[in-house]
Amino acid sequence: MSLKKIAILFSGEGSNLENIIKKLHQKTFKNLSIEVVLTLTNNPNAKGIQRAKKYALDPVIVDHTLYKTREEFDKELVKIIKRYHVDLVVLAGFMRILTPIFTKSIKAINIHPSLLPNFKGANAIQRSFNSSIKQAGVSVHFVNEKVDDGEIILQSSFDKDGLDYQAFCTKIHQIEYDIFPKAIIKVLKDTSNTDK
Ligand code: GRF
Question: Which of 47, 63, 94, 116 is at 20 to 30 A from 14, Cα to Cα?
Fold first, then answer.
C-alpha cells in the first residue's frame, strides 16, 4: 500500500477543491491511499475556505497582496509546501501566475476549462463558448512557467451544439468534477514526491 499526500491551492469558489476532498481525501484506490494534507489560498475572502473547513482542512492563507514581487510570494508558497512533504500540488482555480521559483521546485498540475492549447488564460469558458469551434472541453495539465502550457495529462471534450451559456458552464463544471480526480490518481500512481 502506498500513501500519497497532496496539497490543494485555490483562490475563489472552491468547488473543485471540495469535489477533490470528497472523492479522494482519505480514500483508497487499489493500493494507492490519498491524503489531503494542505489546503492553501492566496485570497482571504475565498469561498473555498469555508468548504475546506467542513472537512477540518483549514486553509493556510498567504495573501499575495502582502508580497512586493511574484518571486517573494512564490518563495513563501514553496517554503510552506515543502514543510508538508507532499507528493503532488493540485491547482484548483488558483489564480496566480507562478514564477520559476515555484515551477522549478514543485510538481504541480492544473485544471483549465478549455481544450488546450485553445483559449489559454483568463475567461476561457466565455471565449470557448463564443468561438466558432464546435467542440469544447476541459484539460488537466502539468504546470510549467508559462500559463496553461505544460504537458496534458487528461482532456475531455463535448459538442457545443444547442447549449445556451448556462448549460455550457454546467457541462464544463461536470467534466471538471469527473476528470480532475481521475488525473490526480493517474499522476500519483507514478509520482514519488514533489521534488523535481
Ligand atoms: C474552474 O473552472 C477551473 O477550471 C478554473 O477555475 C475554476 C475554478 O472553480 N481554473 P472553483 O473555484 O473550483 O469552483
Answer: 116
